[in-house]
Design a protein that fits this description.
Length: 415
């Protein structure tokens, strides 16, 4: 019989869903609002770059902070800062001072809060659930994120944008407050793994980086995943221009576009629910790399068949394969990294994995300006294919058993 995930995890999962609902409204609503200010691929792509740049600049430092401090408290501070930021954005919109420059700065600041909230919340999961249920916990977390952000958040973004641009930030501000209150009242306890004697911060950063660089499984997965993230950022930074408006190839309206994006979330939910079950019948490494390969090929569909039906089906499959891959890779990392180092290792991996995304977004905007959108899409697909080839050649299933840490029998309620 499976061990229960527990009430604390359930509360944390609900808070994650609320926060990600706000994320989905912002991530979908901001580019759509930006189309009322510009049709420049470079400027639209700059918003994506701004959202991910904080991971490149702060990922390593934030990992140290998460390992040194109470992870719950770090998450609470990040959510509070996000609520204040979104409230300020509403004021700027209502007073008529919003511009592409101001919008980019706001998205950049939002990205800073995302680094700390995401790292703290991710590192907190192994403290809340039994180790035997990590795949289930990660799967449900990713499902909540996708359902809230894309399946619900994306359509809501289209609706609130019709009511007024201020709602694009106002509603996420309220949701951030709700998530903060839930974590503060329903996830009691202290969640800190730092040693009594601390090393210098730079020493701790080097420990996390060194662990990744020398790890025979995490290193190739990180390199491949980071390159794929960069290519995907280039792809999706300008994708709205392919889909929305009279000058686009598909010709959707701003209110129709989120409904197509919702198919990504539907596939992600399906993948997160089935990941644990599929993993019982297919070895982790084979399943992970197979999903990455299929994910890559699906990127060609919008170019080869630029119609709503084909793209919706492709996005359903894309969300499915992408989420299964994320569930597996995250659970593998949590089983191979000591709790006291998990924040630093995750921060280091996301510094590269997410840090390359702003570069990819800027590159996508530049190439789209110079060579057109199809060149971006085909080039991103080719780059993903090259990236997947690396772990396929060096990572084997039998390596995992030798590298996993022994199970620690602990009560999550007494952390």
């Amino acid at each position: 019989m499976a061990e229960p995930l527990g009430r604390r995890f359930t509360a944390h999962l609900t808070a994650t869903a609320l926060a990600n609902l706000g994320d989905g409204i912002v991530q979908t609503g901001v580019p759509l609002y930006a189309l009322t200010l510009t049709r420049s691929p470079g400027l639209i792509a700059l918003l994506t770059a701004a959202a991910w740049l904080p991971w490149l600049l702060l990922g390593l430092a934030a990992g140290v902070v998460v390992d040194r401090t109470d992870r719950r408290r770090t998450e609470l501070i990040g959510l509070g800062a996000r609520a204040v930021l979104f409230g300020a954005a509403v004021v700027i919109m209502l007073t008529g001072y919003m511009s592409m420059a101001a919008l980019t700065v706001l998205v950049l600041a939002y990205g800073v809060t995302d680094v700390f909230v995401d790292l703290a919340a991710s590192a907190l999961v192994p403290d809340l659930v039994p180790r035997s249920r990590l795949e289930a916990a990660n799967g449900r977390t990713l499902a909540a994120q996708q359902v809230a952000a894309a399946f619900v958040g994306a359509p809501v973004a289209g609706a609130v944008l019709a009511l007024g641009a201020g709602w694009v930030f106002g509603l996420p501000a309220a949701l951030a407050v709700g998530a903060l209150a839930l974590v503060a009242t329903r996830v009691p306890g202290r969640y800190r793994h730092a040693a009594a004697v601390r090393e210098h911060a730079l020493v701790e950063v080097r420990e996390g980086v060194r662990f990744l660089v020398h790890h025979p499984v995490l290193r190739p997965l990180l390199v491949a995943g980071s390159v794929m993230n960069m290519a995907s950022a280039a792809y999706f930074a300008v994708f709205v221009l392919w889909m929305v408006g009279p000058g686009s190839h598909v010709g959707l309206t701003p209110s129709q576009y989120p409904l197509v994006i919702a198919f990504l979330a539907a596939g992600a939910v399906l993948g997160s629910v089935l990941a644990e079950a599929i993993g019982r019948h297919v070895t982790e490494v084979r399943l992970l790399l197979g999903c990455w390969t299929i994910n890559t090929l699906l990127l060609l569909v919008p170019v080869l068949a630029p119609n709503v039906g084909a793209i919706a089906v492709a996005f359903l499959a894309l969300g499915f394969t992408n989420t299964i891959g994320n569930v597996l890779s995250q659970a593998m990392r949590q089983r191979m990294v000591a709790p006291g180092m998990l924040g630093r290792v995750t921060g280091a991996s996301r510094t590269l994995g997410y840090g390359l995304m702003p570069l990819g977004a800027l590159l996508g905007g530049f190439v789209a300006e110079q060579r057109g959108l199809p060149t971006v899409f085909v080039g991103a697909t080719a780059l993903c294919a090259l990236a997947v080839a690396y772990p396929i050649t060096v990572v084997r299933q039998d390596m995992l058993a030798d590298l996993e840490l022994p199970v620690e029998h602990k009560d999550p309620a007494t952390v």
